[in-house]
Amino acid sequence: MASFAKYLILPLLLPMVFAIMFEGVEAIETYPKVAVAILNNLTSHEDLTLHCKAEHDDRGEHTIQYDDLYNLNSLRNLTVSLYSCSFRWASNETLHYINIYNEERDTCYDCYWMIREGGPCAFNFDTASYDNCHAWNSNLQYAKTLTSNHGVDASNANASIEFD
Ligand SMILES: *[C@@H]1O[C@H](CO)[C@@H](O)[C@H](O)[C@H]1NC(C)=O
Ligand SMILES: *[C@@H]1O[C@H](CO)[C@@H](O)[C@H](O)[C@H]1NC(C)=O
Ligand SMILES: *[C@@H]1O[C@H](CO)[C@@H](O)[C@H](O)[C@H]1NC(C)=O
Ligand SMILES: *[C@@H]1O[C@H](CO)[C@@H](O)[C@H](O)[C@H]1NC(C)=O
Questions:
Q1: Are residues 83 and 135 in the same domain?
Q2: What is the number of structural domains in the chain?
Q3: Which residues does UniProt assign to the signal peptide (predicted)?
């Protein structure tokens, strides 16, 4: 009888457990939530290797084929408001840097970038095209100086390197 009761109680308890869990999730959802999609549009049609990170949030190195998207989703930590990425491709192993999301600069919640050799272009919702183009940051130090309050060290496209 005791073990039979256990099977009756468990289905009654589970919905309560889930209700408590989802309440917790909803509380987190009140932070601004941003999604950034990055399109490989290299004119050479090469693979694009990228590595995006913010302080306390290293998304690791990823390689995407031409015309594919990389999604950097749910950046919802209020204290993590600056994401930097490095990019490289086979014919140019130089790391090219850009701040992909900067809370002080960006107003988008669904942000889109198109990556080309000459530099990244952000999607402009006013013109509905990728015409908000940026020069590559020549080095990470320069990328860091774009914002005053958020010190981020994206180091390079090497996952073993830590933030300072
Ligand atoms: C990608 O680049 C090609 C030219 O190389 C251009 O025709 C195309 O519109 C670009 N894709 C997007 C989504 O802008
Ligand atoms: C949010 O940011 C704080 C401080 O920067 C950090 O300690 C915490 O781990 C972060 N949380 C998540 C979920 O990234
Ligand atoms: C690699 O990229 C850098 C920065 O955009 C550029 O200055 C350099 O000329 C490129 N090298 C080659 C071999 O294309
Ligand atoms: C990555 O970092 C490790 C440790 O610092 C180093 O030994 C390695 O050469 C680096 N790899 C690249 C591709 O930079």
A1: yes
A2: 2
A3: 1-19
pLDDT tens sequence across 18-60: 554 544 444 444 556 788 999 999 999 999 999 988 777 788 9
Structural domain harbouring 24: 1-30
**Whether 127 and 52 share a structural domain:** yes
- Collect all residues with Cβ–Cβ distance below 8 Å to 10 and sequence separation of at least 6: none
SS3 147: coil
Under DSSP, the state recorded for 33 is: -
Find the ligand nearest to 77 CA.
Answer: 2
In a domain, 108, yes or no: yes
Report how far ligand 2's centroid is from the alpha carbon of 148 (Å).
19
Residue of the CA atom closest to atom 10 of ligand 3: 92
